[in-house]
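Reference record:
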Amino acid sequence: MKKYIFIVLALILGLTGCKEEPDFGDAVFITGTLSSNTLRFAVDGTSSVGLTVSSSAKATEDITVDVAPAPELLDAYNQSTGRNYQLPPEGSYSVNGSSVTISAEKSVSSPLEITADGSKLNAGVTYCLPISIKKANGGLGILESSKTAYVMFNKVITTKVAQLNGGAYFNVPTFKGESSPVWALNQMTLEIKVRPSHLSSQISADLINPIMGSHESLQLRFGDGSNIPSNKLNFAKVSIGSNYHPDNKPHYESTFEETFENDNWYHIAVVYDGSKVRFYLNGNLEIEKQTEGGQINLAMSYGGQSWNDTFSIGRSYGTTWTYKGCLSECRVWTVARSQSQLQESMCYVDPTTEGLLAYWRFNGELQSDGTVLDETGHGHNAHPSGQINWLDNQKCPF
């Protein structure tokens, strides 16, 4: 089904007489680029988006503005932003026309329609198509800083996700013991998409909702049972230091101010680069802390509990607390991922990406022994326990 989406237009004309306000004169620019020249385009099947041009004053006559793709700008854009965007593949998109019109007494043009075919885009890849104003008639200038929009194409992925209703979880046996690849991580990234249920503003040990990690060594969880309600996300203990045992490391525990809602999707990540530990929500940096350095040990629990309290997904303190909600796109890295990398790969990442230690998609595709495949090929399959349901037709970006 073809979907048509107009990019939201936001234009504030500074006509207050304040001398500090920028004077654009009589100029045109691509709508929405005054604050950011990046525009997002989620491609679900065959989808279209409308791009418009604005003028700094109402047109006194019909004005024609020539607008066209400018792929030659992408290399410079990548270099200036430190990104590595690709152009959409040939034949994956079309632009209907090469000009738009700002009608007399209007300040926003007719739309230039860009249509993309999601079947010709790769999952997890952010494509970038620069669209630039080439010429405007009627004596109007072109605002150089906002004459180009960088349209980001992301293919919408429709997938199954794991649904846990309490009493179910996943273990990763290969993460146990002193030979574990997560015994002493000099750098690390944990990330996952979650859709929690049973969150509450109450504080109770019965409402602790553990997502992933090693019990109180570094664990992502909702609530802590004593001070934090279950609708707040807590990064428990965050033990980082030179001693192998989490008990004997400095702790950098953190809690988001955000109040989380039931049945909403969130992307959560914690990144340690050997110096600082950073906590992200939906790709946005929420908390950053300077550490004393050292390693993170996800193979062992705070308090020296049994090896059953090593890294797991959906449980904590043995099986005292288990997760309630949906899970998707769970990854463990031995490198510190950048903010842009987190933002661009929330829905999928190439399993061969350098530093990706384990990757569980939780998309309902099980191995013959019932385990969830580690997509990296490193053999760290996730072993389910309890009743796991698979919820269909979930879209990402959610």
The longest strand covers residues 126-136. Residues 74-81 form the longest helix (8 residues).
